[in-house]
Amino acid sequence: MDAAGRSLYGPRVPLIVFEGVDKRYGALRALRALTLSLEPGRIGLLGPNGAGKSTLLKAALGLIPVDAGRVEVLGRSVARAPLEIRAHVGYMPEGDTVLPHLTALEYTRLAGELTLLPRAHAIARAHQVLAFVGLGEARYRKLGSFSTGMKQRARLAQALVGDPKLLLLDEPTSGLDPRGRDEMLQLIADIPGRTGASVVLSTHILPDVEQTCDQVVVLAEGQVRYAGALEPMLRAGERTYEVRTKGDPGGLRRALEREGCVITQTGATLEVRLPEGVPASQILAAAVQTGAQVRHLAPLRKTLERAFLDTLAPP
Fold first, then answer.
1. pTM for this prediction
2. 288: burial class by Cβ within 10 Å (0-12, 13-18, 19+)?
């Protein structure tokens, strides 16, 4: 922070802070007393349709006013310094937002000038970021002639042109085929290492987050259901194990249930939740007792889809 207590991505300053934020659209309450603090990194923003994801991104940019609460980005108040913040934030909105009559170079240069870059600098940066996203040879073509995948790359380029400290990406892989999606995700994954920028990726495609992010925020009905590192969200708990056997595991299941274990069975795979005080070695002891051949025994790791649904489930 400077002498006035201001900061733009200074040490120990959260990336984004929402404190008691409310936002209504008529009778619809999109954000409900939302409180959230995000640290720099690669952050996945998840939630069902209508959860408030796009509203959160727009509020962070100051594009929409909030009805109550406080929003800070890069250590600055969005209400007091929205233009200063936007000069350091790249935004890729959802949908087809390109200007079809402009070339990719003109479109990206314009975005650079809107972040207050001088024209010559904006043109130079436009050339650089278009090459980075794989549009170097197409930079003089009109955007209206681009495929969906090329338009998405152009939209990413305009978000990058101002050399932002933070990128807000709203559904960046929407409409892409599998190859285009993988290529876009690789570009997004490379950005923090190449530029030092943090990334907030808002998407409904859960594997995109699992592939690119190390933090996760789950929204539902305008409130935070989970915010934190991705890895703990995927762990089912220290006392839950996945067990696969050769043949029918029924005998092993019954033996473990007699020990007070809670079992979920799918084919020859058991999900075993051990009661307090029962060690994991009891699974192997029960296998020896029943003659079951254990092929796999490991702490259970959830898929992101399952962890996401568990997060949304009522308590």
1. 0.79
2. exposed
